[in-house]
Structure formats: structure tokens, C-alpha cells
């Protein structure tokens, strides 16, 4: 492992058992209140990213805690092949109604990777049942992220993870994501996105359309691309390409779903590019329980059910406590109009970030949708040059941020191949005043980081 990519930077929870010697101590969590996290020494940190874009309702939400307590006093677990549960019925009903036609049946699991595995296995079994057993390849995007189990990782575009785990996975084609900040020569954002959509069709034709099962993408990117949003025409193009070749379009909405981008699903921003399958997790339970779901149509479920049912399942499918939390979260998302608040506060935060970019030399790009935002850090705003690999340890920015009372989620992609960014994705419950505090503190963090880089001769 090269020194610039220490285990502590890899993120995704490895820190707990793989922190390098000498890594700075993390604060120890004592409690949470709304957008604030408080450590055992009494320091308060504004949660600027909802952890890994999960805590959509903030911390210690009284209605969710009350729902958890009420459910705990009734039943926490009952196996879904033996018992129905009210929690499961209410959660599935709310989820189906919010996700809307064509995505109104949920296979409920305990996280994003499981939900992606379930989605691609369901698509495969459906293809087999309808006599299209030659279809198995799932095309993904480079870069892209869909989870860390081997099936979900196989369809993810992360060169570093593939170097390590590639031999254990079945290789599938990947096509470029329409990155918008550093474009190939002679391209505009639009023309590059058109070329990326064309690359999907070329890959399908090269592989043989009858072998391709699905195309999976994050409609608004997460950590892999730093909240990448493509031009509208891209979504329509990939939808048409998938339809033309009988391929299922899967939107991974693990980060973007449940109100995060200003609509319940990010897919709702592009009604003419509706996916066949959507995958949710994270905000679905807002971090109050491990929960995820693969959403498909009633028609697909009916077809597979008539042929004997989905040959797949986990002990914690439709977990009763998980479903009770999910139902309470969705009730709150609807009643408090959290998607609407995400759109409003997202616009405000974006303005503040753009204002910061005007005076801080490190801020190269601000992008995203609703409260799924990211800022890209650069050594030079004009050339868009990246900060040298050894100077940009995300843990370093995270550490400066802690000193300013800000909890940040940072990423340098695959050994710096794509860039460096900070996710700015606070809880959807954030107020305008708290957005102001977040932006002011972030400005101070970036000023400190810029001063450090100046003293090191980088800026
Ligand atoms: N897909 C996306 C887009 C994600 O952001 C994540 C988590 N970061 C996953 C899938 C995997 O979810 P989990 O970590 O819950 O397995």
C-alpha cells in the first residue's frame, strides 16, 4: 500500500480495525442532538456530512427514538417467512407510495451493499424466468461505487479495490462516468456526457446485447465522484439505450434517495428516465437502524413469484425493528417535508460554498443537488491541478475540521486519479442558521489548510 493511501484514508469503516500507527485519535462520541455531535470531552461538532451521508434526520430525533422504544416493547424480530409484521407492512406501503409506480415493491435488507446484491440477483432471476438466461453482465461506471460485498464491488468502478479483490470477482464491463470538472480535450460538459452515453451503447454492442442484464449508476454521485450530476440529456440517453437493448436500468440511490436531493428519489428529477430498479439505504433509516431496500415493479415481482419466488434472502430481511425505524423515518420525511427543506437549504448552502470558492484558492468546484453537495479541492483554480498526493490526506482536512467543530467526510479517489473532495451533506433537518455556521466554519478550515499548504510551498 503506498504511503499516501493509508488505511485510515480508505474510509468505509475500516478505521475501527485498520488505523495506522500514529493516526490521530478520533473524538469519542457521547451523544447527538440534531445536527450536532458531542464528544466525551464536551466538544460540539456540526455534522456537515450526516456521517457517510446517512443521518438524514440528525441525531437524537425524538419521534424516531419514541418509535424505536414503542417497537422494542412489542417485538424486535420475527422471521418474515413465519410472521407478518405491522412495521413491515407500514414501511413497505409508505416506501412504495413515495417511490411511485414501477418502483412500488420493496425487498428489504439491512444495508446498501445487500440491497445492490439483491437488485442485481433479482434482475438476473427475472431474466432467467422470462427466458433470457443469456443475460448476466451488469455494466457499471468508472468511477462509481455500489458497495463492498463481492457482487456489489464487481460492478463498482474503483481501480484500487479491483487490484486487490479483482481475482475473486467476475469481471464486468465499465463505462466512463460523465465527470464534469476535468474534461477530455475539445469537450464541453454536454458533449462529454453524450460521449459517455455513447460509450454505454458501444459496450453493449461489443459484449452482445443478449448477454447484458443491467446498467447500474448513481443518478447523483456519492463519494466516488463527489456528488456528480450529469446534464439532463445524459439520463434520457441511458434510459433510451437500455430500453432499446432490453437492459434493466438500475439507479443506486443509497446516498441520493429518501429526500436527500430535494425529491424523494433523485430519479424524480428525470421522470423521462425512470429506472427499472432503484436501490436505497442510508437515509431510509437515517442511520437509526441498519436498513436498505431494492425497489422493483409489482409486475417483475409477480413474474418471479409465479415461477417459485426469489431464490435469495437473509436472516435480517424485513427486520421488524429496522422496518419500524424506516416507517417512522418516512413518516417524518413526508410530514416535515424534508425533501423540500433539502432543496431550500441545499440552494442556500450552495450559494455559501460558491461565495467561499470566490476567495479561497483551494475550492475548485461546487456541485451536487439538494443537500447532496461536494466541493472539489485543487492546488490551482485555473489549471484545475490536483493537490499533490502526499499533501492531501483526507484525514488531515478532517483533523483541521475537528479543531473548528466541524465533522467532515473527505475523499481522495483511487490514488488520486480523479480528484479530492469533501461531501457537504448535512442532515435534511438543518436550519438556515446552521447552514451559516457550517459555511463559516468550513471557510476557516479551508483557510487553515491553505495556509499550511502555503507554508509547505504547495500553493
Ligand atoms: N451504493 C452507494 C452509492 C453508496 O454510497 C454506498 C455506501 N457508501 C453503498 C452502495 C453501500 O452501502 P453500505 O455501506 O450500506 O453497504
Automatic annotation (TrEMBL):
Cofactor: pyridoxal 5'-phosphate
Keyword tags: Aminotransferase, Pyridoxal phosphate, Transferase
Signal peptide: none
Keyword Transferase: yes
Pfam families: Aminotran_3
GO molecular function list: transaminase activity
Family the entry assigns: Belongs to the class-III pyridoxal-phosphate-dependent aminotransferase family.
PANTHER family documented for this protein: AMINOTRANSFERASE (PTHR43094), AMINOTRANSFERASE CLASS-III (PTHR43094:SF1)
Protein name, per record: Aspartate aminotransferase family protein
Biological classification of the source: Bacteria, Pseudomonadati, Pseudomonadota, Alphaproteobacteria, Acetobacterales
